[in-house]
Amino acid sequence: MATPTLSVEQQIKQLDEARKLVLSDATYYERIIQGILPIAAPGARVELRRWVADFLAETFASPWVPAHEKEKMSLIVLDTLKSMIENPQEDAAVVKSVVQTAASLYPVVVRRIINEPNDSQTWSKMLAIKLRILRIWDTATTGVRICCIKFAQRVVLVQTNGPAVDPRNGNPLEVSLSMVPPNHPLMPPMNLEAEASGLLDRMLSVFQENISDAVLVDATLNSLSILIRARPHIANRILNVILNFNPLKQANSPMTPKLRVMVKSMEKTTRSLLVHILKRDNQHPLAGKIQQYVERMMRSKSDIFDEVSRKRGPPEPTDGLDAAKRQKLAAQVTSAPPKFHVPPLDPGPHSVAELFTVTTDDALKAFDVAQLSEDMVVKIGITILQRIDVDMLNQAVEGVRKRLKIMSEIERLVVTSSTIPLDVEDDDDDYEPAEDTEQILNKLDAAPPAELVKLLPPAPEVALGKFKLPDPLPMSPEEVALAGRGVVDRLFGLMTSLDERDKKSKSAGFNRLAASTNDRDSWVTIITRIATRASAGLEEADGVKVEANRPTPFSMSNTIREEMYNYVFMDFRKRIDTAVQWLCEEWYNDRMQMKRGVDAILHYEKWVLRILDGILPYLDSQDRTLLIKFLGDIPGLSAEVLGRVTGLCVNPSTVNMALQSLLYLLVYRPPAKELVLAAVEDVWNTYEDARPVVVKLFVKYRPDYGERFKAAEGAERANGVPEVKEVAAT
Amino acid sequence: MAQPQTQAGSANGTSNGERQDPGGFKLKFCTVCASNQNRSMESHLRLAAANYPVISFGTGSLVRLPGPSIDKPNVYQFNKTSYDSMYKELESKDPRLYRANGLLNMLERNRGVKWGPERWQDWQIGAPRLQHNADRGSEGLEGGVPDVVITCEERCWDAVIDNLLERGSPLNRPVHVINVDIKDNHEEALIGGRGILDLADSLNKAATEEREANPSGFDSGIAGSRAGFDERVPEIIGEWQERWPNLPSVWTLGWF
């Protein structure tokens, strides 16, 4: 499209024609977008870049482009947007459009990532754009900053819990945190929520600054309505900040025409938002406060502006008056926690529910919470506990405590007074005992059973002091084993569900902590430590008991070890590092145990051998480095371990590998030198076919091999029988 | 699509010359009054004649025009009745009365501007307006998203803001919403139209200046050295208010 022969004006004219085409038929969007992106290359004329950026902002805002189309196109444009916004030399108008586009795109991309949790590429581009926007938020020109505010608002909207909706619904306003699965690999909901909370604070900080820029304040106020309405759990936080905001505070300074416009604008915009909220929900918990605020603002406003227009200058008293007002406002908020009155209960029996009912609202009392689903109750409970004012909670608890106290006292009185008539016959109650049973029966007939239940049992229960749950029945060894297995399965299930760490990012070295990251490596560390250390020192007795004629008692550690072995063995070529890590832990633990006592049960040797036994049969000549690495990395070598390695010499294809790994150990693990040489000697004696290789590799360290080899060869040639024994004796 | 432009109402003669120049930047305007008949249409025509892209709306529930007596207004539905059919109806009812009170003149003007009154609340912001291509001032507003909304009465400003809050700003597009208080009669509408054109010129000048190539980039730390358009709007309105003290104004930055 961008033919160099055309002037910029001609190109823009062409672009405008293309735009009209897509406006008339949305099916062309994808093709047009693909065509225009190259025009916006970094070196292109600013007019063209502006046109493209503006077109993108328009396209992704358009209610006429279906959501799935936007999703498809988002994949195409993210790179361009990213390069535009990351270019510090970029034109402000372009950046402004890019930020607007990003705000419209954000929910679209999030919804895509919800459905495609593995599309990390798209998500990382979006994240880069987000990061950049949040970075330029404070430093860019006002025009860009307001768009950053709007972008943040959109992020907050997406990353907070909303009402449950069908995620297939195309409305971008309805993408919310509730749609993100709790175990999403790219977007952990907890992180999203925390980020949203931080961004909201940053948005609201505009109201706490001394000098308010009306453009920013208005941009914020006008973007908040949807958050207040669609995200009730953050609505009060937002409203409380607004209610503490005084848009008239700058009215003290000399009133320039500009300042006049700004102050008036902030006041009017604040009021419009609050009136809008009131209008939609006059039952809002803050309705009273909002009403007061709106009235106070209107009064102050007419005071200030009427006076200003009469006197053409700031009236002195406004200053003092205003400060006093602010003080009063602040004092009100901090020093007067809402007084919470818990009405005392009437005398007489009460249900537990009544005891804890602190509201005085009869309609609310009649509400049966059992109608709600359990998880909803839990959600409500958690939200309330997060939001509730500590003072209020304390007052409520204190109120209920008082009720209980009074009740238990009454209970005592009632109990005594109801027993007295039976024991000591009063004059008035003379003939009562006679009718006692009948009366009770009558009562039973008359009273609805539910009420009886309500009346009878709770009273004594409430009066009871301590209640101790009976100890659980001891578990049988089988149950313990089963439960233990379950725990181990969970551990490994979690581990395999985690990502394997990039090889590249692995550089922590000695500074690496066991669980500094939530990846598979960290879990391996944790699991191996649970296996090696958790029950260390507790298993001596087991070792003895095994002798007895009983099934082996369940050992958590050994079950984990068994699982670990299986895990490593399943894909040993990839998991050899895990094996080494595990064996290091075992070795370390063995050392610690040996320090503690002589009769410690050691595990390291056993598991090294098991692993070697497991993998050696599967090794082929390609696995040389694997074996060398393993032998070089494990913390302890023994004759038995080397014995397993020399065993490889039986197979001509692995002779080289076995001997080369021995050579490696000889060269790079000097403490093992004697062991290795003994092993080589063993090879020499056992595997005749390996001798040429032994000579080749080890002659430098044992020059006598060469002579022995020649001698042996000579002898063989002489009588056709290798004289192994004789040579070995020398 | 290009409308044959009359030179009428060209308080802004310079911008007429720019009409053929597609490179000249134009802010996109939207004018709003109660019935989309008098004040918003007068300013719609003015802005269109000065070659600004412009659309207009009413915020009332119905289009109300004066009738033979105060309790017998002529009431029409928004978006359903054209200016032309209103004109014909009133002309057939009582041509003398409606000529005398200026209604026929007004409708005559309006039917030359666009098809019929549109209601703000029913407007789908961002919907392509290609089918409006015969309207005056339609060129440039095909995308249906103006930069500046000018209302002609505080009640209308309130309705617009409340409606924008209600919509929940799904488009993420900033918009300056400015009220210019104009009494609802023909004379005041004329004066108000001139005031609005002056305001539009001032705003457009600032916006054009902002768009002149700025080689330092937006992130160079000297952003304050040259104030952007949005930042200058309060100042521009303040200066404008000094020039037009009888047209009280309110402004905010809202979102579509």
Automatic annotation (TrEMBL), chain A:
Which residue stretches belong to region Disordered?
304-327
Q: What is this protein called?
A: Symplekin/Pta1 N-terminal domain-containing protein
Which Gene Ontology BP terms does the record give? mRNA processing
Quote the Pfam families the UniProt record gives.
SYMPK_PTA1_N
Keywords on this record? mRNA processing, Nucleus
Q: Where is the composition biased (Basic and acidic residues)?
A: 304-314
Task: Name the species this protein comes from.
Answer: Mollisia scopiformis (Conifer needle endophyte fungus)
Q: Where in the cell is it found?
A: Nucleus
Keyword Nucleus assigned to the entry: answer is yes
Q: What main location does UniProt list?
A: nucleus
From TrEMBL, chain B:
Q: Which GO cellular component does the record give, naming just one?
A: chromatin
Task: Please provide the record's keywords in A-Z order.
Answer: Hydrolase, mRNA processing, Nucleus, Protein phosphatase
* Alphabetized GO MF terms: protein tyrosine phosphatase activity; RNA polymerase II CTD heptapeptide repeat S5 phosphatase activity
For this protein, the record's InterPro entries field holds:
RNA_pol_II_suA (IPR006811)
Q: What is its EC number?
A: 3.1.3.16
Question: Biological process (GO) annotations?
Answer: intracellular phosphate ion homeostasis; mRNA 3'-end processing; positive regulation of telomere maintenance via semi-conservative replication; regulation of pericentric heterochromatin formation; regulation of siRNA-independent facultative heterochromatin formation; sno(s)RNA transcription; termination of RNA polymerase II transcription, exosome-dependent; termination of RNA polymerase II transcription, poly(A)-coupled
State the top-level EC class.
hydrolase
- Disordered, as annotated region: 1-22
Quote the biased-composition stretches of kind Polar residues, using this chain's numbering: 1-17
- Catalysed reactions listed for this entry: O-phospho-L-seryl-[protein] + H2O = L-seryl-[protein] + phosphate; O-phospho-L-threonyl-[protein] + H2O = L-threonyl-[protein] + phosphate
Subunit record text: Component of the cleavage and polyadenylation factor (CPF) complex.
Give the function comment from the record: Component of the cleavage and polyadenylation factor (CPF) complex, which plays a key role in polyadenylation-dependent pre-mRNA 3'-end formation and cooperates with cleavage factors including the CFIA complex and NAB4/CFIB. SSU72 is required for 3'-end formation of snoRNAs.
- Identify this protein by name: RNA polymerase II subunit A C-terminal domain phosphatase SSU72
Q: What is the native source organism of this protein?
A: Mollisia scopiformis
